[in-house]
Design brief:
The chain has about 260 residues and is an all-alpha fold. The chain has helices at about 1-35, 45-55, 55-90, 95-100, 105, 110-120, 120-125, 130-150, 155-165, 170-180, 185-200, 200-205, 210-220, 225-260. It is globular and about 75 Å long. The termini are far apart.
């Protein structure tokens, strides 16, 4: 009877895994077939070529990548010292900050976009890089939790007290002691920001900036196959970025383990 119960649990787990994989793979497969298959049933890469021949799409993609890089840098510069300060100085305030970080999920993006539009300085309204600050807010619920979970796995207080005893400054504590120990959270936050910026539509559309998602939506009205093909490529690009980040994380762990030995 016990063996049957274990077998039933394993079967249910395998069934749930298969359903989950199909849930993600079937839309990608259908999109790929729609994008690359012509009316005669033959497959061709012409839609991808047409997509990259569109200068607006390539310019918007490069702009979105630059925005994502700036968003990653600014978010990490703000959040890493903040999360470290919360863990070291005021750990009792973590619950309150965690609640504040959830607000971007509660407030609709349209409301956030209008408030952001009327509150930003005039010099920012003339540049698409104003979206960096908007995307920082949108990514806050995910990036804060990724970093906070990573900081929770180490004894930050002991590291802080030991560094003070040895005469280390706050900058040394952050860049040479804490960051090497929370690389997993940093890589996770980086990936989440990249995925969000490459797919965010509401803010860019409301603020009338031609980012990759907005241009892709307009291009899809004229050439749906090219737009869908480029969407699939962007999804594969995010997947490759995730694997690169995972490899970097594993290599860093290996280096740390070798150094410890």
């Amino acid at each position: 009877m016990a063996k049957l119960t274990v077998y039933a649990r394993q079967s249910m787990l395998l069934l749930a895994l298969v359903i989950g994989v199909l849930f993600f793979l079937l839309p990608i497969y259908a999109s790929t077939v729609f994008a690359l298959q012509d009316v005669d049933g033959n497959y061709s890469l012409d839609p991808i070529g047409r997509a990259f021949q569109n200068e607006e799409i390539t310019k918007s993609l490069l702009l979105t990548l630059r925005i994502s890089v700036f968003t990653v840098i600014l978010t990490l510069l703000v959040l890493i010292p903040t999360v470290a300060w919360l863990h070291i100085v005021v750990p009792s305030a973590r619950k309150f900050v965690e609640f504040l970080s959830l607000l971007p999920l509660v407030i609709p993006p349209i409301v956030q976009g209008v408030g952001f539009l009327y509150s930003m300085p005039n010099f920012l309204k003339s540049t698409p890089y104003a979206l960096v600050f908007a995307y920082m807010i949108l990514a806050l619920p995910f990036t804060y939790r990724a970093l906070d979970a990573s900081f929770s796995t180490i004894d930050v207080r002991t590291l802080y007290e030991a560094s003070l005893t040895l005469g280390a400054k706050w900058r040394t504590l952050i860049f040479r002691i804490l960051i090497p120990n929370v690389r997993t959270g940093i890589f996770a936050a980086t990936f989440l920001i990249l995925a969000l910026v490459l797919g965010e539509f509401a803010y860019a559309s409301l603020l009338l900036w031609d980012t990759f998602p907005t241009v892709l939506a307009v291009a899809g009205m004229a050439d749906a196959s090219a737009a869908v093909a480029l969407s699939v490529l962007s999804l594969l690009g995010v997947w490759l970025a995730l694997n690169v980040i995972n490899l970097l994380n594993k290599s860093n762990r290996a280096i740390v383990n070798v150094g410890v030995r």
